[in-house]
Design brief:
heterodimer; A: 116 residues; mainly beta; seven-stranded mixed sheet; four-stranded antiparallel sheet; 0% helix; B: 115 residues; six-stranded mixed sheet; 12 strands; 50% strand; globular
Amino acid sequence: GAGVSQSPRYKVAKRGQDVALRCDPISGHVSLFWYQQALGQGPEFLTYFQNEAQLDKSGLPSDRFFAERPEGSVSTLKIQRTQQEDSAVYLCASSYWTSGNTGELFFGEGSRLTVL
Amino acid sequence: AQSVAQPEDQVNVAEGNPLTVKCTYSVSGNPYLFWYVQYPNRGLQFLLKYITGDNLVKGSYGFEAEFNKSQTSFHLKKPSALVSDSALYFCAVRAPERGFQKLVFGTGTRLLVSP
């Protein structure tokens, strides 16, 4: 596709449910990032993939959060046993360039998660 | 660790007037600096970046930003604001070290341009 595609755009989950958020990056983009944006805040880094390798997961807030990119393209962010504090917009971004380069990121429209 | 401060939650400006959105940063070494814009219910869009070279960088939609090393600032500017510029603006910084360095965002500044 022309841009980064995320699904679902909106997800409502009951506390304790598991959720999976999908990101389809721009074709050929090596790098993929997940960010969490709470209401009224800037995006906070969660994790980074270079192709299928998860090179940095230092931003994942707990072991309930898990991300994968098994074939180096589509990525899934999974949140187990959701809590109310997980409510946020989850942004996916991709870049043609590898980690040390100066290239800008291309963001998807985000998946808004609301945990009741 | 790198950080970004956007001291204004909101900036109000009349259409046709110049606008400035402020950003200061903290990072070891020479930073890579970025501005992004976010429209309602949309993802972030890249506006411009400073990596090295000329301190004044020009970007999309007539925006520009000036890197000031002594003041550790990277303010976003536009000579004549449009109503359509109303959006949420984020400054971001990345440390220049080799290898992966995450992009750190500020908390954002809402720009409101009135007709």
